[in-house]
From TrEMBL:
Pfam entry (one): PilN
Keywords: Membrane, Transmembrane, Transmembrane helix
The protein, known as: General secretion pathway protein L
Taxonomy, superkingdom: Bacteria
InterPro entries: PilN (IPR007813)
Residues that span the membrane, as ranges: 239-258
Lineage of origin: Bacteria, Pseudomonadati, Bacteroidota, Flavobacteriia, Flavobacteriales
Organism: Psychroserpens algicola
């Protein structure tokens, strides 16, 4: 699982094979795009163009590419020998070659070997041009030798590429010939159908995925450098992307966390405001209660202990024929107003009522005046209401 993840982070799931072929004295680029899904490989797209600069229209930036150089600068020779040493086979094919001036690649088989060579100056220049056109070449092959990646999958013994005729016997390549004006043909294998112009590009892209190259070469160091440069660029890009993503996630999480606490703080602030308002209301009500209590205490203050005594004495002295309508002890001098001290007419009892006999009222007043705590009885009104009754009102002044 770890290897799969690392491979995906390094290469992604799309691989590209690209062949630079010489066809009828014209350079043509044949390309193919493979998509790796689990344990399957699917052909997503194929393309061709005449200019290197046009390839960016088909291959996205930073995608891995296997380049097959199959033009007039590549020389391929067939060697019949039992030798297995790479340099021995090379010198059998090219006796006077200066190895430091050439890149070479060898397909070793039982008795038949194929050697492809190319001058380093040409290939290095081509790789530089690919880099300047934002093409990420991570591996390359010379001539048509990369066909060995899929030759065993193709049932036909005669295989045509864009400019080569390849024949095989008993599963091994026996001949590679340069041919012009090859007819367009198709090959089917493993539920995949490919044109002859797509075979080498497909073989190259598949080699990136399967990593089952059967070729010996002199450019392992160059291949390692290409792969290392690609990995460094990919790592930097992925690291930057993952870093920015992590930073964004952290900022987003921080935002939601801050927003959550901010909402809670707002709720607490609103609750605090409600509590403050309620507290102010309670304080206001408490002040009103205290003022009301003070007013009540003011009413009851002074002679409070004797009020029931005075009222009880007056009530007990009322004759049977007299009916009281009012008995007001310490009546108010003014109407009660908010935040104002209650003013009472102290040491006063107001009495009103009706009597069926006028003489009874006079006698009762005389009786009241004889009480030692009564200073004076002041008649306020006395009038006949009818022949049988009269209305009266008087004020009792109490001694202080």
């Amino acid at each position: 699982m770890k290897d799969v993840l690392m491979s995906y982070l390094t290469f992604g799931n799309r691989f590209y094979g690209l062949e630079q072929a010489q066809v009828n004295n014209q350079t043509i680029y044949y390309g193919i795009e493979l998509k790796k899904t689990k344990n399957q490989v699917e052909v997503e797209n194929s393309f061709q163009c005449n200019e290197l600069s046009e390839l960016s229209n088909f291959i996205p930036k930073d995608k891995p590419i296997f380049l097959v150089v199959n033009n007039e600068f590549i020389i391929t020779k067939k060697i019949e020998s039992n030798q297995v040493e790479t340099l021995e086979i090379l010198h059998l094919a090219f006796p006077n070659i200066k190895t430091y001036d050439f890149y070479y690649e060898i397909l070793k088989q039982d008795n038949t070997h194929f050697v492809s060579i190319c001058r380093k100056t040409h290939l290095d220049k081509l790789l530089e041009n690919c880099t300047s056109n934002k093409l990420s070449i991570i591996d390359f092959s010379l001539g048509s030798l990369i066909i060995t990646s899929i030759s065993n999958l193709i049932p036909q013994n005669d295989i045509h590429t864009a400019n080569r005729h390849i024949s095989k016997v008993n599963g091994q390549i026996k001949n590679i010939e340069l041919l012009e004006n090859l007819a367009n043909t198709s090959y089917s294998f493993n539920d995949t159908e490919l044109k002859n112009t797509e075979l080498l590009a497909f073989s190259a892209a598949l080699s990136l995925i399967s990593k089952n190259q059967q070729l010996d070469s002199s450019f392992e160091t160059t291949q390692i450098n290409l792969l290392t440069n690609y990995k460094e660029k990919r790592f930097f890009k992925q690291f930057l992307k993952i870093g920015l993503t992590c930073l964004f996630i952290l900022l987003l999480g921080n935002f939601f966390l801050f927003n959550n606490y901010y909402n809670k703080v707002n709720q607490l602030r609103e609750t605090s405001q409600v509590l403050t308002t309620s507290k102010n209301k309670v304080i206001s009500l408490s002040d009103k209660v205290q003022k009301t209590q003070k007013m009540v205490e003011d009413v009851l203050k002074g002679n409070a202990s004797k009020s029931s005594f005075y009222v009880d004495a007056v009530i007990n002295s009322v004759p049977d024929a007299i009916i009281l309508s009012k008995l007001n002890y310490q009546p108010l001098l003014k109407k009660i107003k908010a935040d104002k001290v209650i003013e009472n007419d102290t040491d006063i009892i107001l009495i009103s009522g009706t009597s069926s006999q006028n003489i009874l009222v006079s006698n009762w007043i005389s009786e009241l005046e004889s009480i030692d705590w009564i200073k004076q009885v002041e008649i306020l009104s006395f009038e006949d209401n009818s022949k049988s009754s009269s209305l009266f009102s008087f004020k009792i002044h109490i001694l202080k």
